[in-house]
Design a protein that fits this description.
This protein is 34% helix and 29% strand. It is built from ten helices and 13 strands. Strand 7, helix 6 and strand 8 form a beta-alpha-beta unit. Bound molecules: adenosine-5'-diphosphate (ADP). Adenosine-5'-diphosphate binds next to strand 2 and helix 1.
């Protein structure tokens, strides 16, 4: 399987929402990381053909998804939207039946897949409850289940953990890891922990541009020497905040410990050599300066 983006561009008035985005994806989880406004939704919307591009191509197996194969592409695409525009009065099972119809699955496929998917997202016992009685996390799981109907080859997940508490976040992340075999999964998020441990490749998107696309390991390596930690007073903290990008601040017995990320760091702050993570990568490349 191969999904290629070539010079994909979308503008809204003077805003370049996506700027000559070029990337090739194969089976695996691709974490698309960027702050609000980076262009993540625009990329998803172009892929699901809900907005029109200005320029560029999206090729699935070598063929543009908008050309004659467009309909065929829709059949291999699963989409979990950001909004919970859910059918509150439906039960989880009815909602999945309805979506199966929209996706033109036949009755046999629907009968087979719906119980499997409900089980996969841990909702078998609640399948006949109305969606309006569900927690945010359960609603997200229903959305994930519907995206998986028809066993899509390309799965698009837009902020799958938006509005969830940490426990539910981990749950959704684990489900995604479980189903990502033999699929191209695009997972857009501004939350680093959503893709931690499940993304084989991370795409850093900033103001419509692809800054980097690489494995988490390589991205982490690329900022070696650019992370430091040191102790300071509360007054000094204010000064540091003006000058540096600050990750965590920890209260310790001897004062505040700051984690700073950048090309220029205070001399007296020891460099962090171990335990640099994707959070630091995010701060270094994507946090506004
Ligand atoms: P993200 O999903 O990363 O938050 P978006 O793709 O939603 O980013 O937005 C990228 C840029 O395009 C932003 O500057 C946003 O304001 C702009 N944008 C997105 N959709 C529209 C729209 N329908 N009309 C005007 N501007 C838009």
């Amino acid at each position: 399987m191969k999904l290629q983006f070539q010079n994909l561009t979308k503008t809204y008035g003077h805003t370049v929402a996506l700027d000559h985005f070029t990337a090739t994806m194969r089976e695996g989880v691709y974490g698309i990381l960027g702050p609000n406004g980076a262009g993540k939704s625009t990329l998803m919307n172009l892929l699901t053909d809900t907005v029109t591009r200005d320029e560029g191509e999206i090729l699935y197996e070598g063929e543009d998804i908008l050309k004659k194969q467009g309909k065929a592409f829709r059949a291999v695409l699963g989409y979990m939207p950001q909004q919970q525009g859910l059918y509150e009065e439906f039960t989880a099972r009815h909602f999945l039946c309805y979506m199966a119809g929209m996706k033109r699955l036949n009755t046999r496929q629907a009968k087979e897949q719906i119980p499997q998917l409900l089980a996969l997202v841990g909702l078998s016992a609640q399948a006949d409850r109305k969606i309006k009685s569900f927690s945010g996390g359960m609603k997200q799981r229903v959305l994930l289940a519907q995206a998986l109907l028809g066993d899509p080859k390309v799965l698009v997940l837009d902020e799958p953990t938006a509005g969830l508490d940490p426990e539910e976040r981990i749950r959704i992340r684990n489900y995604i890891a479980e189903i990502s075999d033999r699929k191209i999964v695009l997972l857009a998020t501004h939350v680093v922990s959503d893709i931690e441990s499940i993304a084989e490749q991370v795409l850093l998107l900033y103001q419509g541009r692809l800054i980097h696309m690489d494995t988490p390991q390589n991205l982490i390596r690329s900022i070696e020497g650019k992370v430091a930690e040191g102790v300071c007073t509360r007054e000094e903290l204010t000064e540091y905040q003006k000058k540096y990008r600050i990750g965590n601040v920890y209260q310790r017995a001897d004062g505040l410990t700051l984690r700073l990320v950048g090309d220029e760091l205070p001399e007296h702050f020891p460099r962090v050599t171990q335990q640099i993570g994707l959070e630091d990568v995010y701060l270094y490349y994507l946090e506004k300066r």
